[in-house]
Sequence to fold (194 residues):
Amino acid sequence: MRVPSAVPGLVAACLVLPICSASAGAVLTPLNPPGCKSAPGNAAATREDHSEVIYYCAGVNGWRIRKTAFGTYVHAVFTPPSANKPALTLSAPYDIGPRIEWHMSGQGTPFAAVVRLHTRLESGKTASALAVLALSSRSACVAAIVDGAAADANGQAHKAASGLANGAACPSIPTIIGPQTEVARELSDRNKVN
Fold:
């Protein structure tokens, strides 16, 4: 996610503080400790462990996120403030985060979010894509995926998020913006509406 150069140390602060501002109309919240609470009984685990590790993270305006890692597979479950059940489960084969960028309306309500999804390539190297989420008070979906290696990937994700300000229907398969890479296709397929 793009961080304004006029705010040095913002990324580090956003890993510790529960909520911090990224830019006008956007707010960052963490998806990892110390900004998220570890579930009781979590064992210290590495990515290669096959122990389930759960974190509870606060979003903005009452959104709740439960991040679960099991070995190298990760889910982030988003629950809107006015719902008793989750609206969206994001999936990635390596990691999600380290933060969520919430795009806010003039009334201070989130209408979109951008989250980085990580995967491991056959070569052993990691790659990422940006998931653009469409949000309402009761629902959420993955509207678009942008390959993290694409030229101006952050700018493309921000433009897609801004385009959701007036509400948008959720596609059954997230739209891939930019190059139709293997990473973008894999992460789009993993996060389609069932």
In short: The chain has a mean pLDDT of 83. Residues 10-190 form one domain. The chain has three helices and twelve strands.
